[in-house]
Specification:
A hairpin with a 2-residue loop joins strand 8 and strand 9. This protein starts with a helix and ends with a strand. It is globular and about 45 Å long. About 5% of the residues lie in helices and about 45% in strands. It has one domain: Immunoglobulin-like (Sandwich), CATH 2.60.40. It is mostly beta strands and about 160 residues long. The chain has 1 helix and 11 strands. Strands 3, 4, 5, 6, 8, 9 and 10 form a 7-stranded antiparallel sheet that branches. Strands 1, 2, 7 and 11 form a 4-stranded mixed sheet that branches. The longest helix is centred in the N-terminal third of the chain and has 11 residues.
C-alpha cells in the first residue's frame, strides 16, 4: 500500500506538517508547546501477585531504563488506521505522520508541536509499538496544550522479554 507513504509527503508538501525528522519552526507562537519524554526498555516479570518476591521462580523484575529509539508522532490514530502485527505492534500507521525523531542515549526526546492531540509510537526495525489506548480506542494519545510541554513516558519491549 502506498497510502502510508503518500499521505505524509502530501501533508508536508502542503505545509500541514514539517518534513520528517524536523520539529516545527521555534519562531512560531507555539514554540513552547510540544511533547517531551523518555523511552524506556522494559523486561522481566511484571505479573502482579500477592506477596511475590523479586526472586521467586527465578523471575526478576528489572526497572525500566532509558534507551535510544525512534519516536514517531502521528495525528490522533484509531485502531482502524493501523495494520496490526500483534496486539501492541503495528506494521503500518495510516494516519498522517507529523514528526519522527531519535532519542538521545538516555532515551530522552523533545519536539515542538502546535496544540492538539497526537498518537505517539516508538519504532523498532519495521514495526511500530504502542500499548496505551483511551476510551475511544485511540492509540497512545497525547494532548499538547498551548504554551506547555506535555511529558510522556514511552516503553519498548526488550525483544518480548517482559511478562505481564
Amino acid at each position: 500500500m502506498l497510502l502510508p507513504i503518500i499521505v505524509p509527503i502530501l501533508s508536508a508538501a502542503l505545509g500541514l506538517v514539517p518534513p520528517v525528522g524536523r520539529s516545527f519552526d521555534p519562531g512560531q507562537e507555539y514554540q513552547r508547546s510540544g511533547i517531551r519524554g523518555t523511552v524506556y526498555s522494559i523486561g522481566g516479570n511484571h505479573m502482579p501477585a500477592p506477596n511475590r518476591r523479586r526472586i521467586d521462580s527465578g523471575a526478576t523484575k528489572y526497572p525500566p531504563h532509558g534507551v535510544k529509539a525512534t519516536v514517531c508522532i502521528y495525528s490522533l490514530t484509531s485502531d482502524s488506521q493501523v495494520v496490526h502485527a500483534d496486539p501492541t505492534h503495528y506494521r503500518a500507521v495510516l494516519s498522517p505522520l507529523i514528526s519522527c525523531i531519535e532519542t538521545d542515549e538516555k532515551g530522552q526526546f523533545q519536539v515542538f508541536l502546535p496544540p492538539g492531540t497526537y498518537s505517539v509510537f516508538t519504532k523498532k526495525g519495521e514495526l511500530f509499538y504502542a500499548s496505551r489506548r483511551d476510551e475511544k480506542n485511540h492509540i497512545a494519545p497525547v494532548e499538547v496544550l498551548p504554551g506547555k510541554m506535555t511529558r510522556v513516558s514511552c516503553s519498548v519491549e526488550s525483544d518480548h522479554k517482559a511478562v505481564y
